[in-house]
Amino acid sequence: MDIQQRIQHQRVQHIIDSYGLMGAASEADGFDTYVNDLLNQYPSGLLELALVETLSKNWLAIPMQKGVAFLAAAHECIKLWQEEIASGSVSLGFTPAQFANITGLDPQIAFSSLATFPESPSTLSSQAAID
């Protein structure tokens, strides 16, 4: 794994650790496997966006969904975005500034993944436009 991949994995892990998204210890192996599968299948920035989207959608749910179920919901976000990209528009529930507030990470890295996944979208909803 090169340095760029390590940084990308650390950014995803930072979000997971910051919000305790792994869930129960009994799910740890399955959770780690799912995260690695998603990182191998999609750009890490896209996974960051999906984690934050899922977090924001489930913010007020008590108890908040965690573990493999949380990752499955984030994966569904990515699948939905694939369909939206094909139609020319991707809609996110947060802005780059909100992403930075939620994660403490540079939003430019995550949002730039939309431009390369899987093809360049022709429009991006105004709420998700890069600052």
UniProtKB/TrEMBL annotation:
Protein name stated in the entry: Uncharacterized protein
